[in-house]
Write a structure and sequence with these properties.
Helices cover 86% and strands 0% of the residues. It has 20 helices and no strands. The model is unreliable at 397-411 (pLDDT under 50).
Length: 411
């Protein structure tokens, strides 16, 4: 289709610089909270929990607006403009507020980070996935560049943090300026039928989703499986750096490890569409769940840097499969007019609900029984819900028409 190659290149570049911005300011977030702001495990868990709460408040709004405006780029432009100020926000607002009052700082930070990153990523991913369906290119091969952007930033993040954490924040703002330039240059044509299809979305349509059993069973998988990987990752850098003679050495090595992991993740993003197409969406989600359970349980069993590094790298296999599978699962089994709300509520929102509940619990467990024992508990939790989901997720052979009939009966 005319213009598809140019759009693929620009949207891939957008992914690259968005994740570069995000990684520069967030990949060492828990280390920044612990070493620079001097928060303990429970307080750090509260910050992550508040971030999750504000993100989940934004996700349904982003999802509804995205489906209502169709292929217009308004939301991406707003997010890009917000990110230009990420550096000054961390340095002059967020950090001082957290030191003054943890709850106040967490609330202000939750509003900004929730809108810009934690909910913003869902809006960006769902938008670009829509474009990929219209212009016939694999979403995963565009999303791959996001992983490369994250890896490029994390490669230097640990070293730069040891010099001055503020350097990473200023780099993030500079990267966001490029984001704005990219989104301004993008032009997507919308036919009259596409405009009508987008404008036909109503709040009633969204409400009917919550009357579908299969929608709730999908959210059960998301809360029991996918949200745990983000909870695991939140304070993992603190544990990882503690395994080294000095925190500075641990921070630097973690930056290299995280960068290597995300480079592997980018390669898997390229391969994941073929894997998911062969296995089917449901089986791919189950496979990702088992990989995650193995990784988290393994993190509790090993106790030296090489072993824990190996466990962390499994993330590079599971995440691409899960991300591609969730989009294909939603497209195959639900109304594609609601693709953004389905992704932002059925996947992102449900993940944040789980994270808001589990983050403070995980933080308390880390303080009380240590990281290794906490990882064993979390891994068994994921394993249980993965096995349960083998019987509750919709068979991948079911088509959209089955769910459309159910929705019509409800309406």
């Amino acid at each position: 289709m005319k213009g598809s190659k140019g759009l693929y290149v620009k949207l891939s570049a957008y992914f690259f610089f968005f994740f570069f911005t995000w990684s520069s300011s967030y990949s060492l977030f828990s280390i920044w909270l612990g070493q620079e702001i001097n928060l303990n495990g429970a307080e750090t868990g509260i910050v992550f929990s508040v971030n999750a709460i504000f993100a989940l408040c934004m996700q349904p709004l982003y999802g509804y607006i995205s489906d209502k405006i169709g292929l217009k780029k308004n939301i991406l432009f707003v997010i890009s403009m917000m990110l230009v100020f990420v550096g000054p926000f961390y340095i002059y607002v967020y950090g001082p507020l957290l030191q003054y009052n943890v709850l106040l700082g967490a609330a202000v930070g939750g509003i900004y980070l929730g809108a810009a990153f934690l909910a913003g990523i869902g809006a960006i991913e769902s938008y670009i996935e829509k474009i990929s369906r219209k212009y016939h290119f694999e979403y995963g091969r565009s999303r791959m560049w996001g992983s490369l952007g994250w890896a490029a930033a994390t490669f230097f993040a640990g070293q730069l943090y040891n010099i001055d954490p503020a350097i990473n924040f200023w780099i993030a703002s500079a990267s966001a300026v490029i984001l704005v330039a990219i989104i301004v240059s993008i032009k997507v044509e919308m036919t009259n039928s596409e405009v009508e299809r987008a404008e036909s979305v109503t709040l009633k349509d969204v409400g009917q989703l919550f009357l579908l059993k299969d929608f709730w069973l999908l959210m059960l998988y998301v809360i029991g499986v996918t949200c745990v990987y983000s909870v695991y990752d939140q304070q993992f850098p603190i544990y990882y750096s503690s395994l080294f003679p000095t925190e500075a050495m641990g921070n630097q090595v973690f930056g290299y490890l995280n960068s290597f992991q995300v480079f592997l993740e980018a390669g898997m993003m390229f391969l994941a569409p073929a894997i998911v197409n062969r296995l089917g969406a449901k089986r791919s989600l189950i496979l990702a769940g088992f990989l995650m359970a193995f990784r988290i349980i393994g993190s509790g069993l090993v106790f030296e840097p090489i072993g824990i590094s190996s466990m962390k790298l499994i993330h590079a296999l599971e995440l691409p499969i899960m991300l591609i599978a969730i989009f294909k699962y939603l497209a195959a089994n639900f109304d594609t007019r609601l693709s953004s709300i389905l992704y932002l509520v059925g996947f992102q929102f449900a993940s944040q609900v789980g994270a808001s509940i589990l983050s403070p619990l995980a933080g308390s467990l880390y303080d009380q029984i240590g990281f290794r024992q906490s990882y064993l508990i979390m891994g068994v939790f994921v394993l249980f819900f993965t096995v349960l989901s083998m019987f509750t997720l919709v068979n991948s052979k079911e088509k959209l028409t089955n769910h459309t009939r159910k929705l019509q009966k409800v309406i």
